[in-house]
Amino acid sequence: MTDEEKQAAADAAKAAEKANADDDSEPTDTDGEHDYKAGEAKWKAMSRRHEAQAKTNAAAAKKLDEIEESNKTESQKLADKATVAEKRATDAEAKSTRYEVAAELGIQNKHLKYLTGSTKDEIEESGKGILDDFPETYGQSGTDADKQKPTRPRERLRSGAAPDEEPDETDPRKLAASVPRL
Fold first, then answer.
1. Do 147 and 140 meet the contact criterion of CB atoms below 8 Å apart?
2. Per-residue DSSP letters for 56-123?
3. What is the rounded distance in angstroms from the CA atom of residue 113 to the CA atom of residue 6?
4. pLDDT tens for residues 49-91?
5. Burial of 130: CB neighbours in 10 Å, binned 0-12, 13-18, 19+
6. Residue 30 DSSP label
7. 26: Cβ–Cβ under 8 A, 6 or more apart, which residues?
8. Going by fewer Cβ within 10 Å, which terminus of the chain is more open, N or C?
């Protein structure tokens, strides 16, 4: 153990002793009633003391991390970097697989966060679950008739300029006479 580590341990021990020495008795007025202002002041003081202790502990932890990092050998540092790189590569591959499955199944970007799994098969199963859970979004209503592929409506266009057959009557007077009057 180096001198710096010993000093950090001693500082932590002193802080623990000081924290244990706190007075936990309830402050009271001369009437024997609870003194809320004194209690509030006591708790504020304890809070400030604990905040200071937390800052000291954070500084000591940071110093300890620096010491441990400086004591590592070059091979340990390279091994740590390799581990971090492998994790990043694995995460990138999983993300890429999620995007591929989403594109294959037609899953929207807002539902990508629900694609879970570590293998492509697991991700595909998760994607099929999404399609089942959001049938309105992905054009499925659950019935067999609606699961068929939609077809384009057939057009029945007819030109108004060239009728298929001649009208029965073309004389305007006869047409007017055939209209019923009320």
1. yes
2. HHHHHHHHHHHHHHHHS-HHHHHHHHHHHHHHHHHHHHHHHHHHHHHHHHT--GGGGGG---SSHHHH
3. 47
4. 999 999 999 999 999 988 888 888 888 888 889 999 999 999 9
5. buried
6. T
7. 34, 39
8. C
